[in-house]
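Worked example

This section walks through a single chain of length 225. The input is the sequence exactly as stored; nothing has been trimmed or padded.
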Amino acid sequence: MSNNRVSAISDGSMGIAVGRSVTVQASMGTPQATGKLAWVQNTYASQYNHAVGCWESFDNTIKKRRMRGGHLLLYRFVILAVVVVSFVLGGLSSEVKAYVAFPVVSTVIYLSLTIWNWHVFRTNGNLLHSHMIHVPDNALPGWSNRFYTIPVYTQITDHQVLAISNYAGTAIGQLIEQSRDSSSIEVMFYTNSFLKETKFPKETLLHFIIFIIVIIVAIASVVKE
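Given that input, the structure is written out below as tokens.
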């Protein structure tokens, strides 16, 4: 099972991922690293839920729903195995009718997951917060997103943060302008990899079609007997 390397939140706080030393010259002192390294499972639901968690980590945001099935059921090899077994048992159900139970139950489970996840995507709406800033992939090598706490009116000397700031200087400047009464601003830089997590999971359309075919084949095998 492959996973994706991302930045997550520790103890509900925002910050720079642990495992990296950051030097910032600021009159308010050096910001503390409060983020953490995390690995997101390689299923569309887990990746989408990671994006939801990033949205909710910012203050004064509306809670969003989570997709289901991402921990096991939506891995592609699991779905492939279920589909193959369903077709085999569906075909054999003409001889042993009890075999039809597996494809029927599998279809109900996967269609329910698909419909629920469609509902979640539709009702959640936008997951890109105003404090999320898009940067090129080469600005965050090996990461899909990273969290930072940036002191207001500070000189950043960390090379990676400085490089990111060069890409996102205008956006950071606007946030600082909006945060004059704050000693720092909380931001998340993200790449195209993270952006994909917020998009509609097109593979759900394939799941829906496949399991409709599975149930049709299973029922047809029983009826023709």
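What to look for: The longest strand covers residues 3-9.
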